[in-house]
Design goal:
single chain; mainly beta; 5-stranded mixed beta sheet
Length: 81
């Protein structure tokens, strides 16, 4: 069963995902991310320490689990679509 996850995303990375330059997320796997999950990426301004109000949705289309290829155990790299 797919889940929806709301994730804080720093402005510089939010913009890259929005523009299509970044199609992945590297995250601690503390939410049991699965293929098919919906990620609600909420833009976070690090300097002001607040949300900007912008958000977007992306689906997880692939997961590379940690513990291999230099990815720390307990983390995942997720492909976004």
């Amino acid at each position: 069963m797919s889940k929806t996850h709301e994730l804080k995303t720093w402005t510089q990375y939010f913009s890259d995902v929005f523009m299509g330059r970044k199609n992945f997320e590297a995250r601690k796997n503390d939410r049991d991310f699965q293929i098919g999950d919906l990620l609600i990426l909420k833009e976070w301004d690090n300097e002001k320490e607040q949300y900007t109000g912008r958000q977007m949705a992306r689906f997880v289309s692939y997961i590379l689990p940690g513990g291999q290829f230099g990815i720390e155990d307990g983390y995942v790299v997720m492909s976004l679509s």
